[in-house]
Amino acid sequence: RKIETFSFTPSGNYFKGHAEQAAAALRVHFSYAPFAVPSDVYDDFRRIGFHVFRRRLENSNISGITIRHPIAGTCILVNYDEDIYRQRFTAAHEGAHGIIDSGEDVVVSFAGTPAKESLVEIRANTFASRYLLPTSVVTGIPVSEWTHDAIVHWASHFKVSTRALAIALKEAAVVDERTATYLSQVSVPTDQKRDPELSNLST
Question: pLDDT tens for residues 170-185?
């Protein structure tokens, strides 16, 4: 596999800014159009030299792990027991640790919302959100009213959970907190989800 070298060095103390800049830089690196959906994020991170593994973990509280090995390099483990769309977000989250948190040998990401003081985890979540759902894309979605059907349709389009999309909509000031809470409780039917790695295989 040919490795496409990609590096990013954060500057300043604004962690969310680090994430937004890194996500934008990686999308430019892969020549993604503004409204393009990164389908196989696992392949994206493999292209820049990360080893990505998807395995079922006995500890359901762990979403992913990033390890920086002195010989193998950056290795990412994604919990395969989680929802397919959640796994894509976790892969991007762990990718952020691999790109930005170069000083850490091991980073374990637990399921659920990170504590407010965990700026590193908030930064990784922000990176994943901006990489999969750039603000310019979220604000350009042609929806006049966010309903049950609308969130299911667009979450399926972007291959993210309704929760991830609802949070992105709220942060972009497209919907208020009450609407975001309602939308995040809607689920995309399992039979409508396609595993991105399987989608790359021939019949």
Answer: 999 999 999 999 999 9
Buried b (16+ CB within 10 A) or exposed e, 15-49: bbebbbbbbbebbebeebeeeeebbbbbebbbbbe
Element (H, E) at 64: strand 62-69
Helix (H, G, I), strand (E, B) or coil at 43: helix
Whole-angstrom Cα distance, residue 114 to residue 100? Answer: 17
Q: Are 94 and 65 in contact (CB under 8 A)?
A: yes
Contact 42, 198 (CB under 8 A): no
List phi, psi (to 5°) of 33.
Answer: -65, 160
Query: H-helix or E-strand containing 122?
Result: helix 119-132
Give Cβ neighbours of residue 34 (< 8 Å, ≥ 6 apart): 134, 136, 137
Residue-wise pLDDT for 4-13, tens only, equals 999 998 888 8
Q: Hunting for tokens 């830089």 — which residue is that? A: 25
CA distance 91 to 64: 8
